[in-house]
User: Fold this.
Amino acid sequence: MSVPLRVVVAKAGLDGHDRGAKVIARALRDAGMEVIYTGLHQTPEQIVTTAIQEDADAIGLSILSGAHNTLFARVLELLDERDASDITVFGGGIIPEDDIPPLKEKGVAAIFTPGAPTSDVVAWVRANVRGAGTR
Assistant:
């Protein structure tokens, strides 16, 4: 019996807009994944702690505030510090195209910009997250 992927969907920082995060959370859940939505105004420390406590396979960060470079970097740093760098980090939001390559170089596995079909996000998670349903 395969165990569903576990994905933490998080809104980091002061950004108060969570519609996109909720849409992705629902799409992943409807695709059979276990989703833990952390809610608004989470710190990178809270997000990483939740992911570790929940034995998550991935963290999906939604960032619309413009703080994507800082917030993604801090989440990746904390995962590394806590020996949890096997948790895949992906994200989306208002992220300029020029910022995507440096984020990927830091370790963000994928970035989805506005208008990305939820089916693309689901397919990417299924294809790229460690142990896809084989825990």
